[in-house]
Amino acid sequence: MRPHPVRRYGFGDVHEASHPDSIRATLAEFLSTFIFVFAGQGSILALNKIYPDTGDTAETASRWIVIALAHGLALFAAISASFNVSGGHVNPAVTFGTLLGGRISLIRAIYYWVAQVLGAIVASLLLRLVTHGMRTGGFILASREDEWRALIFEVVMTFGLVYTVYATSIDPKRGNLGIIAPLATGFIFGANILVGGPFEGAAMNPALAFGPALVGWRWRHHWVYWVGPLLGGGIAGLIYEFMVIPTESSPTHTHHQPLAPEDY
């Protein structure tokens, strides 16, 4: 992963929008999100195919362990695959956190968001094709769970996810931690699924929620899986950026200049 520039904010410019580095990074985000969603959501369809849900408690616990492991490993691989090209966001909430932290321009963030959502949609479409029409379930709340508790779950879990990303891949003092950033991110993602999954599905990623919901056409409670992760990711980015990372000195004029593509 390229060293992050000093904290500065910018919309971006035409040069950045058309720069080959921006195009490569956007493609990397698309492919990595595709890899992550295809493997993660595919594991759920595979479990439904092999072991139809019987409601058995022990079987349900085993399902969540498999789902958490599949998503954690898939995220580890997806981040590793794009780490040195785009920074390995693979998540609109991570991109939002770095945008609020001044580590990425608005143009680059928009490119990433589009690529991540498209990657999730294509992965979900291909899953439906290769599984003979099985519908991706998206994310739904468990019975007797309400949207506001689910929202808090998503905020807290995504906060932990993006905070881990900041600590291991963005913090200038991270040292050798950058080597394990993809693994650490995969671990916290899988762990959070074990915590929040039985209650509300544990998306922590709007793209991961949107692709399966669109292809399976299941929109109930869908707003929770956008608002919660974006809030959690944004709060984590701001807290780590302004309360944990030391104040960075930079020329006063850089605050108003657009971020150059080579800075990422």
UniProtKB/TrEMBL annotation:
A GO cellular component entry from the record: vacuolar membrane
Family: Belongs to the MIP/aquaporin (TC 1.A.8) family. TIP (TC 1.A.8.10) subfamily.
GO molecular function: water channel activity
InterPro entries from the UniProt entry: Aquaporin-like, Aquaporin_transptr, MIP, MIP_CS
Membrane topology: Multi-pass membrane protein
Subcellular location: Vacuole membrane
Protein name, entry field: Uncharacterized protein
Positions of transmembrane segments: 30-51, 63-83, 110-130, 151-170, 176-195, 225-245
Pfam families given in the database record: MIP
Keywords annotated in UniProt: Membrane, Repeat, Transmembrane, Transmembrane helix, Transport, Vacuole
